Amino acid sequence: MTGGTIVYxxxxxxxxxxxxxxxxxxxxxxxxxxxxxxxxxxxxxGAWHELPPDTGGSDTCASTGxxxxxxxxxxxxxxxxxxxxxxxxxxxxALLAAGPARLLVADVSVEIALLARLxxxxxxxVAQPGERLDRPHRTAYDLAEVLLAPWxxxxxxxxxxxxxxxxxxxxxLSRYDDRTAGPSPGRRRVLVLTGSGxxxxxxxxxxxxxxxxxxxxxxxxxxxxxxxxxxxxxLTCAGWTGEVWAELADADVVVGHAGQNVVAEIxxxxxxxxxxxxxxxxxxxxxxxxxxxAAGLATVRDRWPAPADWPGVLDEALSRGGAxxxxxxxxxxxxxxxxxxxxxxx
Length: 346
Fold this sequence. Notes:
- By secondary structure, the protein is of the alpha/beta class.
- It folds into two domains: 5-173 and 331-345, 3-Layer(aba) Sandwich (Rossmann fold); 189-327, Rossmann fold (3-Layer(aba) Sandwich), CATH 3.40.50.2000.
- Helix content is 32%, strand content 16%.
- Strand 12, helix 9 (284-295) and strand 13 form a beta-alpha-beta unit.
- The termini are close together.
């Protein structure tokens, strides 16, 4: 391997991108330099550069409707005459030149992927579920040396045939892949796991579900969209916490959305799951929910169940169990990703 670095771009929405990046970077032999709009995630193993924001501030064009943030539909976010965007792009360019960068990982940004390739730097793109057939996504996927898919090849899902040869199916990837949970405690405990990018759970819906299942204990790890007032005694909230492994291990059934990080963390703990896909651009979570339902890995509902339905939903999930998650995650996804990145960067 010659000298140089891997530059790893981490998107700021939610926490899943950062957790995934830190897990992969920890296994890379090549030095990894992280870049993103937030501070370095916990456990980041190398240098980190926090980028200027490309929203708000000097983006005066946006308020007048002349920002043309997609450049005529060719990109996702390039507002005109934005000082932050200009500074951000220049900072990434400097990193690409100074390393020198052997590879850039985009998780995820079409613009950053394109910028790296215009510098002659090979690009690895972290793939996302859903219908990514718009011009920007096609550009990013087409220029990539490799597409890292953080889900398994089996169960299968729709994918552009021409991308198959450049797609590496890693399997589910989480920060907990090096841990082993014991058997579920058998105390009829529900954990509601919300992501930092989804705004939190509806307290009224949670209270109604808990009231309808008095023989279950409910616990929420994450945010709420409002105050948890008048909750039944079998419902408590842990609030936002950076560490949820103990909560996962203490649960018999986990209720969550179909984001890649939440699904991967449930899979790592091998817990029975109720998955309710949230509305996301490109049908991202709907696509994952459909795969989980077809494979029988989780009890999937298209919307939050009515209170009267929750007893049956939880019993169905408990009966299904969590052993099937071994098909989704074998604990080695980050190692696979790092091996691919090191090979390209060599």
